[in-house]
Amino acid sequence: MLTESARMTTAQELSFRIQEPNSRQRAVKIIALDKPSAAMVDQLAKKAWHGAEFFTSLSFTSDKAPGSGEGEALKAWLGDLAGRTQDLVTEVEKSDFVVVITAAGEDARAVTVISDACQMFHKSLLGLVVPQDGTSEAETEVSLKHLRPHTRMLVVAHGVDYIEVMLTALRA
Q1: Any idea which architecture 25-169 has in CATH?
Q2: Count of alpha carbons within 13 Å of 42, Cβ hemisphere only?
């Protein structure tokens, strides 16, 4: 009589196995919200990734301030590493989820524009706040305060290595 392990390796049992991978590649958009995080994103983009796209700038046109709550058409663009401009709404629509990175103490209010695009397509928005050398706890709190209402997951990430591990865990 065969053991369970030996029986599972027979040709007959092999016919019952699913031959597809247990997950598909994810389309992840990683967006820097400020100049220090753009340098981090540029550094991260040099690594090997599976379906991740990196953007180092965000620009938008609006008569109203981000997060004002007043309805209008969303007109925003992302700058990729090659300097090309991509439509924010289109990029969010094509994604599985979006990750925003900001350096602690920097202005992260532009996250509201990205959040609006994510809400349009029911995409998750993840936020990473990276404290820099000399950044106070109060400055980190201000950045967290800007991102907290808009993100599904918010993490204080200590350096580029930490971000790389996070993105790898998310299968970016």
Answers
A1: 3-Layer(aba) Sandwich (3.40)
A2: 12
